[in-house]
Every structure is written in C-alpha cells, then in structure tokens.
Batch of 3 targets.
Target 1
Amino acid sequence: MARLEDLIKDIADPRLRAQIAGEVAKLKAKKKFGLVFEEHLPEVMELPGLAVKPGARVVKRGDKAAGFFLVKAAVNGKKVRVVSERGGPAEIAAKDDLVVVKRFGEPMYPALIPVDRVTRAPGKPYHTLINADNFHALQVLLYCYQREVDVIYIDPPYNSGARDWKYNNNYVDRTDQYRHSKWLSMMQRRLELAKRLLKPDGVLIVTIDENEIGHLSVLLETIFPEYLRHMVATVINPKGTGKLNFARVDEYIFFCVPNNGASLIKGIPTSAGITGAPGEGALFYPSSAPQPLLEVMSAEEDDSDDAEEDDGPETDDTDVADITDEELPFPPEEIGDWELRHARRRGSESSYRHQRKNQFYPIYIDVGERRVVRTGTALPLEGKPNFAKVGGLLPIWPIDKDGNERCWRFIPPKMQTLIDAKRVRLGQYNPTYDSWTLNIWERRPESKKLKTVWWKKAHDAGTHGTTLLHNILGRRATFPFPKSIYAVADALAAVVRTRPNALIVDFFAGSGTTLHSTCMLNAVYGGFRRCVLVTNNEVAANLAVRLKKEGTEPGSAEYEKQGICAAVTWPRVEAILLGRRRDKTRLPGQYLDGRAMSLGFEENAQYLKLDFLDPGEVKRGESYEAILPILWMMAGASGDFQLSKGSGKHHFPKGCPFCVLLREDHFKEFAAKLAERPDITHVFLVTDSVEAFHEMGSRIGKDKRCVQLYKSYLDNFKINLEPKRAD
Ligand SMILES: C[S@@+](CC[C@H](N)C(=O)[O-])C[C@H]1O[C@@H](n2cnc3c(N)ncnc32)[C@H](O)[C@@H]1O
C-alpha cells in the first residue's frame, strides 16, 4: 500500500493521480493489518562522489522532496539539463546542486577506501570499521565472509519515534503512519543478507525495546524459522525511564541460535577468577567491586536448575572436608574439580517412576562396610518394590521423603559402571524411612547456564556506556545511548567465550561498543576474536540543521567529518587501543577488572569507507586499487595491503596472506613464487575464463582458497541488484 502511494506521487497526470489515489484510499480503509507489513519503495542511495552526467538519476540537494530527476544533457561544464521523473518541463540545474542516486536494482560498484589505521600488534589481524550504509556493506561482506561469521551482534535503531533513524534520507518520527512498516522493510532486507554470513553454528544477537519487540519477534521467526529464538530481558537503566504508568528499566536481547542439538550458548565459567559476583552474565564483575544494586535469581539462591523446591537441589550438601582421601575415586588434589550430586533424579521433569520405567530399580548397599555394592534389575511398572535384605545387602529404592516413587539418574548398566569406579557414595541415613541417600561424584560443569533475566550494575548503559564514552573522547553528548561495554561483552561471551578466533560482525555499530567489548573479551580470555563494524556517518539531527544553515552540504568534507563514524566511532577505536586520545592525553580510569584504560589493547584496527565508482570513469589501475582492500578483508585482514595499481604480472602484498595473479600467461612463475609462501591462504586469479581458472586452481595446493577475478575488476563486486523474489 505504501509502495503504491509512493508510486502514485510519481504519476505525471494530476487527474489520473487523484483518481488512483482515491481508489487506493478506499482499498486502504478495508485492509486488515496484522503481521503483514507494508512494502515500501526500496531505499535509494545518494552517491555524492559520482559525476553528474547525462543518464544519471539525481536529486536536488536543497529540495529532496522534489523527487528524482534524470540528467538529459550537459549545458556546459557546470550546468546540466534535467527533467523530473514526475513529468513537467526540462530545467537547467547547477551540477553542484545535484547528487547522483541509485535505486534498488541499479548495479553499483563498491570500493573500500582506506582512511586510517592503528597498529599496536604487528602480525595480528585487524579489526575493521567500515563507514557505510549497512545494506551495501553487507553485500560486500557477503563476498568476503559468507558462512564464516560466528556471531552477529546488532543494536538497530529502536524506532522510538524520536527521529532516531532515517528511511530514504528522511527521519522517521512518531507522526509517520508507516513508521513500523518502514522499520520492518529496512530490517528485513538487512537480516536476510546477514543470515547468509552466519556459520552453520553462528548466532545472531539483536537488542530491542518495547517499541518494536513484537514486530521484530515475528520478523525473526519468519527469517530464522529453523533457529531457536531465545529472549533475555536485561536491565540497562536501573533508575528507570518513562513519563506515564511505568518506569522502564529493561530492554530485550534476542539470541537466534541454530537448532542443531548442541548448546551453543556458553554459560558462566565456574572456575574461579573470572565471574566474580554470582548471577547471570556478569563476566566482568570483580568480587572486589560493590555488589549489584539489585539482584534477581542469583546463582546462589537457586542452583537447582530444574529442581522442584520441595524436592531439594541436585547437588548434595555433604561437607567434602569430612571425606577421607581414601574414599575418593580420584586423586585428592582434584577435589575442587568434582562435586557430589544426588543419584536420584530431582524436580518435576521426568523424575517419576512411570516416566522412566527402566530407571526404577534397587541399588544394594553394605551398611556395615558403608559401601555401595551393585544394582538390581529394573522393576516393571506393575511390580512392588521389595525392601527386604538380599544376601545381607540392603536395597535402596529411588523413593522421595513423601513416599513418591521416582527414578535413578541412570539405567542399571551405567549406574553399575559408576559403582565399579567407586563414584557412587553412600550419603546420609534417614531413620524415618530406614533408608539412605546415594550420591554420585561428578566433574563440576565448566560453566553454569545463563538465565533469561540479566540484572547487573555493570550493564548500566548510563555509567558504562554514556559516561564511559565521554571519558574516552574527553567531551560530552557525543552519541545517544551507547551500550554498556560489559553488557555487550556478556552477550558476546555467551557465544564466543570458547571461540578464541571468532569473527564478530556488528552492522549497526554506532559508537563502536562491540569492538571495545571484543577487545575486553580477548584481554580476559585470551585469543583473537576479530570484529567487523559497519556504521553510517549520520550527523546528529540538531547539528545537521546548523550545518545546513551554514551552507555545509552532506557529502562535503566539512560535513562528513562531523558524522558518527568519523567523529565518534573511529576516535573511540583509536583511543581505546592506544590508551590515549588524539590530543595525547592518557585515558583516565580503569575497567571493572582493574585494568587501566591507559594501557589500551594490543590489537589493530583499520578504518575504511565504502565508496562507489563509475566503471566508465575509472582507469584500470584505479579499479584494481579500489578492490584491493576487499581482497585483503577476504583473506583475514592481516598485514598492510599496500595499494597498488596492479600493473605487474602478479602482486604479493608484503606481510599479507594473499596474492593476485594479474597476467595469466605468467602463471608458472607465479606458482613457483607461491610455493615459497606457505603462509598464503588466499589466491586470486585474474582471468575471464572459468576453464582457465579451474586449470590454474587445480595446480595450486588444496590448502589455499582460490578465487576467480574478472579482468574488469569492478564487475567482480557488483552489488545492489534486486534480489529475485518469489512473489
Ligand atoms: C542504536 S545505535 C547503536 C549503538 C551501539 N550499540 C553503541 O553502543 O554505540 C544504531 C546505529 O546504527 C546506525 N545506523 C542506522 N541505520 C544505519 C544504516 N542503514 N547503515 C549503517 N548504520 C546505520 C546509526 O547511525 C546508529 O549509530
């Protein structure tokens, strides 16, 4: 419907336009809304860098509402003749007043332009920050990292109505009747692309608040039907906000996790030294820091997992200090790695005899020797348990204190193996029933399952988001609502704590919290998780108004340097890695684990800008240079890609794990050179012939990834093509 309305505006004949608009209004009145959302005219992209020349589609810088124009002819070097797509007479316009735009389906030729870099750890790969609209950046990332990403973390605009995002260059506010459907259109396109980046065991994390949670939930269900979708409620503002009715303290985190039978979400490590305070998701909360203000369902209060309260916890409270070394089925020094758990199943889930009939059987004990001897056989459902001694051995049945018939945790053969290994221990005597509890020695789990409510002081977005960012940049009001670095670190750790080389993507990166949190994870857990951030260079609404008044146009260097990416994200990345600001002042303060911020992080980062080239205007050498950073990213973002015109026979950028064969007639010499470089992982072969590519590829070791590149370099990475739709 909205798309129709947009198209109607472009009808030149006013009478026809009014008639069609009238009919559409009638239809609209009848239309039922529900989970169906309006499909909007796809977003257009402004490309201030492209030449305004005949054939180009343009908008007027100062009057975007006037719609699109086609450039018909050049009048002179500075002016062109244009006609509106809505009809009407031709006009003469100054080229400087026009910006080229591309609609969906019109091919675009991306180039990644290096802007800056920080190298603190030569030899390590680089995190990358890309200044771009994420719709286009995602398509470039698909060339580089299809099915390679461990986790995508995004914190999209929440669509609160407070002009927090733009659709087609216009702010979406609460007066916009299509606010929700525009948001859904925007998200749908991006999530569909993003899904293709994920590894088979990759996880998508999306944060959201009450404005779009309902819609997002349905959208995720549509795009990720084969995933498990878990929702965490997380307190990020303990003081609370909201004018009417409630003071809202929380927001939500969706975890879309492949449903492959494995638990891909890693819990809180139980080993000492990392988790500090008990609770959910508080990886960076050191025990020396003040306790959280509010704590719900802490691990200490409830460590019974699925146990029913009246049936007691899974673990036994025997004091292990009372157990002699001789009794232990493992070396005494390992005592910290083991715990005693009840041999009988607890809780309401599958713990009754009728639910697991093979697990209702006697276990015989020798009371005199205080020893567990053997299992009996499982008793059929109709059978009655016999409590009489057999050969001097007392049978113990899995019956709870209220006389309910429950079941043992394992079937007899497995239980017997444990008995033989001395791992089943006689516990306490219960004189009321003349019975004993039985316990099993089990290795302590490496981690404790995360729960779905997170309430941690460290997740406060005010202190550990806004204030932290002010401290880093040395100025106030830099960016609205950055997340707490600990909140993002905990969400990421839930997936990548045990993936030391994980690839992490955030395509709504804002101030860059995700990269900051990734560095913290690397510092705490070791490893080199690598981050790819994408964020646009949006200028804050009030600043944009001021710049416009001053005549500073979007696209101009002066305007662009005030955008988020240039003025907040990159300066933050630089400062946190180096431990100092641009003005050389050291970063004050320390992280919650006690690490001084001025130490920075031993990591590298590369700042790139996504640009678009006109293949007709770019010389061959320049186009090779433009795609080099894409090749560099594809090969793992290591080393210095050293821009090159690609005029030689081949190119082996120093310190990079990739090389390019530029002239296929020099393959032999190239292959000989390649044989001396075991560090090279990616080989790009420039040829327009698929057969030649396969022939050369077959002569290169299978341990290297070979990629074909067309001679017309830009064609390799053509994007913005309308996806084929079933409808
Ligand atoms: C809610 S903020 C993310 C904040 C971030 N998590 C942090 O802690 O700083 C969303 C960001 O996405 C950016 N953004 C919105 N639409 C975008 C788009 N189409 N492409 C790239 N970035 C976009 C906005 O400029 C904003 O900075």
Target 2
Amino acid sequence: MLINLLFPPRCPGCGTWGVRLCARCAALFGPPVPVPGVGPPVFALAAYAGAARELVLAFKERGRRELAAVFGALVAAALPELPGVGPDPWLVPAPSRASAARARGGSHVLGVARASGASTAPALAFARGVRDSVRLDGASRQANLAGRVRLVPDHLPPPKASLVLLDDVVTTGSTARECVAVLKAGGFRVSAVLTLTTAHRTHPHG
Ligand SMILES: [Zn+2]
C-alpha cells in the first residue's frame, strides 16, 4: 500500500522498521506477576523499562492507538490467571486527567479495557485540580491525590461484581491505593489491580 511506502510501520518499542510490533518487544509482556507493597494485590505484565516502556509511551503519548488491541489481548489473557478474582470480573480503568484524555482522544486505559472484551465500568475520575504526578515523589503524589479521585455515578459496575482495577503503569502504587479506597468506600469489592507495567524494581521481567 502507498501509505506503507510513505509511512513504513516501525515497532514503537525498539524502532525496528517494517513491523507494527516486533516479536521481541511483544515478548516483554508476560503472565501477571505480583508487585509487593501496594496494598491490594497488584499484578503486572511487564517492567516499566526499555522497549516495554516505549510501547506504553507510544500508546499513551504518541498516538499509537492501535496498541489498545495488543494490550487488550494481554489483559484478556491475564484475567483468568489472577488469583482470587473469579470468572467474569469487571474492569475499572484507572482515571486519566481530563485534559490528557481529551488530547489522546479518550482515556487510553479505558481503550485497553474495552479492547480486552471484559465488562468495563469507567467508574473513576479525577476531580478538578489534580496535577500530573509524573514528577512527584511518593509522598507528594499521595498528597496530590488525596480526596481527588471520585466515583462517576453514571458508570458504576454492578454492586456484587468482582472488580479489577486496570492501569498502565504502577509506580509507587499511590494512585492504585486511592482508586481502590474510593471503590471500597462506595461499597464495591476490588479483587485485584492489574497493570500493564510496573516501575517497581522487583519485577522479574525487568
Ligand atoms: Zn520492537
């Protein structure tokens, strides 16, 4: 196709020309592995490093929206492997800042949840005034978030559903903790947190 001559595909993970996603980068994402020290059980598919990190950033910041299908398939494969979750869990995407989500054409984590085929409830949103937490350390991040995640009444999951919070990167776990606390306060049962990647340094895929 002409479009491929003008814009040949390139792996967003490592930059290899001629492929949309190379096998080596795809293989960086493995079965869910528990990440310690976050509170609720958190499982990650890859370390937030190298090409896996590039893939997440390409999807999130550089418009490679087609990676939603790749990540969605990984999430679909991981859900049955999560201990204590049970069949047919509902996914609740971690919230995106509204401005960031608009710039990306909708919440990217919601896109992954929908692409997984699992029941999805975008039940969480950031209240106004949440700063981008990328440059904040753990304590500042927690302070930045405290009381700033809210339930979205129109998008709640069924009351008895087993919920899995879905995120793209878990670093300190403060966002995940806040989200789980808000869902629990709303009477919901959060069985696990599933993240595409983690910056936690104990991840064995790293
Ligand atoms: Zn690659």
Target 3
Amino acid sequence: MFSNFANVWTIVALARDLKPGKPLSLRIAGERVVFFRDASGKAAALIDRCPHRGVALSLGRVDKGEIECPFHGWRFDGDGCNRHVPWNPDAKRENLGAVALPVREMEGLLWLYTGFSPDREPQPSETFTLPGLAVCAQSVVWNVHWTRAMENMLDMPHLPFVHRKTIGKDARRLIGGRMDVAWEDRPYGGRISAAIDGVARPGALEYRFPNVMELFIDPPGKLLRLMVACIPEDDRTSRLLLLTMRSFARSPLLDPVFRLLNRRIAREDQAIVESSLPGEVPPSGEEASVRTDAPTLAFRRIYRKRLLGSVAERPRAPLLDAPTD
Ligand code: FES
Ligand SMILES: [Fe+2]
C-alpha cells in the first residue's frame, strides 16, 4: 500500500474542512481514504473500502461518530472497529473491522500517515505556530506524477518564463545575467535561495519532506507565505493543496482574492508541468541538468533514497465469519 509514498506524514486538508457528520473521501498514493469525525469529534481515517464487499464507505453516512457502509449497513468507529452487522447478531464483529490509519490534527491542518506505525509526529512549519494568521486553502488537480509538481515548486529559474506577468515579472529584465541558487540541507528538508549577478533575490523557499514547499514573500513588516502540498493521488494524478497564510487583510471575505492569485500562478505552471516526459522524475543522469538545477536534483536524491520503493505493510487481513467454500 501507498507504494513509493509509504510511511510518511502528509498534510491532506485544513482540519476545519473536516465537518462533523460528513465523510471526506480523498485519494492518496493509490489508496482511497475516508476521513470523518468520531463520537468525540476527533478526526479518524479508514481505508475507504468496506471489508465486506469492498464498496466505498464514504458513500455511506456518518451517524453518532460511526461511519455506516451504504451497502449492507455495517458500522465502523474511528478505530475501524466493527460496531454493528445488521441481520447477524451472532457475527464475530471483532474480526470484521475496517483498516484504520493514523491521523492527526495539528496547527489547524489534517495529517495522514501513509502506513500503520508512525515513529514520529508530523512536523508542521513554524509559520503555523505564529499567532493571528489568516489561513485559506484550496485544491487543484494536475495530471502529473507528484514528483514533477514538487520539483516545479522548488525551481527558481522558471519564474520569469512561466510566470512572466505575475511572480516572475520583475526578474525578466535580468534574463541574461548569472543566477546562483543555493540549497542548504535542513533537518526538515532544505532551504533554497537565489541571487542574480550577486544580488540576492527576494522570496526564499523551503522544502519540507516529503511533499511541501513554503515560499516566504513577506512584505515589509508583514507576513505572507504561500505553501503547496503536492499530494500524490496515483501515478498520473496529483492534488495540490494551495495554502496562503497572511498577517494582514485577515478578513475571511478577502480569502477569494488570495485564492485567485494562488490559482492563477498554479494555472500558469500546470500545462507545462503536465507535459513532462517521463511522468515521474527519472534518475538524474537521464536528463540534462545545469548548475541552477541544484534544488531539484537535491529533491530527486531525497525521493530516490527515502520514498522510491517504499511500501506500507497491511495489518493482517480481516477474518471470515461465515462458512467458506
Ligand atoms: S459492502 Fe459494506 S456492508 Fe456490505
Ligand atoms: Fe511555477
């Protein structure tokens, strides 16, 4: 399970977007996952596949903190324990559970672990711990392997070409100069900065393992951060969760303005990144690279070392509680 993206914490949504009484179905690294709030209001996540006949639990309803399968009404709590099997009061419910996954709500974010036994907690960016920030989010779906989307987020030299009228506009007059890009290893991933002809560029970038980019574009005396989580849905599709954190213009009425800007920038990249061949980033030696590709090459090394080939081992399969043939 979760091939090539196993045993890591990933942001999947804002915690406030998981409403009580309503299932939220998301596809993550080849698995369908259903999120819901249990009886105590705590977030829960199950593989979105009923152990009875494999249908999507997310098509059912959430009632009293339990999710009820839409097909034959089996009910599961937030730990995946089977709470009810209609028509079968003698069923061995302890053997008929759904598969639960570790989930956390931290700093206003909803996190999923793509495995079963996390050895650490999620590590949110410090930005989320700062008081008084307005946070808004939206998702866009790209038809591309998540590694191509992630690299795009860490790439400085494309800005004046792809984003010639937005975030790359002011760098256009400098095309023809020499860009230096620095990647510094950090415990959480890496920090990227750039200079053109020796003059530092505004807007540092951070890469947070496994799949988050944070762009620091603080105006004087204020805070403005763009964050993107590149969430694999499957080998050909990625969902980009675009977050904006700001210390000014904090009214929720202004969220659409910030969302629009984020969406416009993402749309500028989309068709170009989706055209990448092969879909998944290849070994570094199979594409031509130059000095300013250092951050994307650093990401490739991390991907190949820590994610490529990873799998999550399933706990034992549910047992039968019926005559076998
Ligand atoms: S398929 Fe879920 S209860 Fe039968
Ligand atoms: Fe871009």
